[in-house]
Specification:
single chain; carbohydrate binding; five-stranded antiparallel sheet; isomerase activity; globular; Aldose 1-epimerase; mainly beta; Gal_mutarotase_sf_dom; Aldose_1/G6P_1-epimerase
Length: 314
């Protein structure tokens, strides 16, 4: 591989490989994973929903296999919050959604800092004076270390506050899984955040999906209309395709203490099971940090979090 991977064509995908396993990365499309699959003579077996040529050409992060959520994740009500006595207004940052959504990293190109056959390090340096269109007023640097081994794909995300004042943060990743009539999701969770139609959180409580997720059969994504945060999860979830005799297990470390399931009835091909550090609109919720997640980095302080995706076949 080239000594300087940034000399490649700006819209080129990066390929990581370990045996038959492959990961395609799109640094120029929000530092996203474009595909994760096994390459066989009979064809490709995809573990995440792959980006299509059309979504790659359009540079649409929402069409990727997974993309990073940083320096905040989920929604922020009306794109505004008060922090450390100051009003932070994100309404002009180019986000076309009604509420600020998922930070700005997924809408910016990332740099390739290192690349080997089975590992890549992507970084993003945000300086408010240079990124005025993205309105997050705190300088920071984010990184993703993406690695393949014989068992798993591991993504380690890190974030460092480069500003001279404390910075609130949230972090996560947004994987899309293949969704079929036979797909089932398994996880153990304590409660689900119910939402307004927006959707923004109203309260945490019981929901039939909780029992379905814990059942031996698992939860069908078709059973409920979900775009919800789940709390008290064991930081592991499995997506199973019984008719295809295969599954993939997501395992996350702290502070990925919350899980989002996105299985909208209006878009029956979409299924996301996301490791995240906080519930939606955490920064505007008057709750103790353990209930809502999120965090604050002091000037110069760093944090990191990892998750793995481990495929299995019968």
């Amino acid at each position: 591989m080239s000594a300087d991977p940034n000399t490649r064509a700006p819209d080129a995908l990066l390929e990581l490989r370990h045996g038959a396993r492959r990961v395609l990365l799109a640094p120029h499309i929000g530092g996203a994973i474009a595909a994760f699959f096994d390459a066989h003579e009979s064809g490709e077996r995809h573990w995440l929903r792959p980006a299509t040529p059309e979504t790659l050409a359009a540079r649409n992060p929402l069409g990727m296999a997974s993309f990073p959520l940083v320096p905040y994740c989920n929604r922020i009500r009306d794109a505004r919050f008060t922090f450390d006595g100051a009003l932070i207004d994100l309404s002009g940052d180019g986000n076309t959604f009604p509420h600020a959504l998922h930070g700005n990293a997924w809408r910016l190109p990332w740099r390739v800092d290192s690349l080997t056959e089975a590992h890549a390090r992507l970084t993003l340096h945000h300086e408010p004076s240079r990124e005025a269109a993205h309105h997050w007023p705190f300088a920071h640097e984010a990184a993703q270390d993406i690695a393949l081994d014989a068992q798993s794909l591991t993504v380690t995300m890190s974030l460092r506050n480069l500003s001279d004042r404390p910075m609130p943060f949230g972090i996560g990743h947004h994987p899309y899984f293949p969704r079929t009539a036979g797909t089932r999701v398994h996880a153990r969770v304590a409660s689900m955040w119910h939402t307004t139609p927006d959707p923004l959180p109203t309260h945490a409580g019981p929901h039939p999906s909780i029992d379905a997720l814990a059942s031996p059969e698992g939860m069908s994504p078709d059973a409920y209309d979900l775009d919800n945060n789940f709390t008290g999860w064991a930081r592991t979830a499995s997506i199973v395709w019984p008719d295809e005799h295969r599954s993939i297990t997501l395992q996350a470390g702290a502070p990925f203490d919350f899980m989002v399931i996105y299985a909208p009835s209006a878009f029956p091909s979409l299924l996301c099971v996301e490791p995240v550090s906080n519930v939606a609109d955490w920064i505007n919720l008057d709750l103790d940090p353990a209930s809502k997640g999120g965090g604050v980095l002091a000037p110069g302080e760093s944090m990191s979090a990892s998750f793995t995706l481990t495929p299995q076949t019968a």
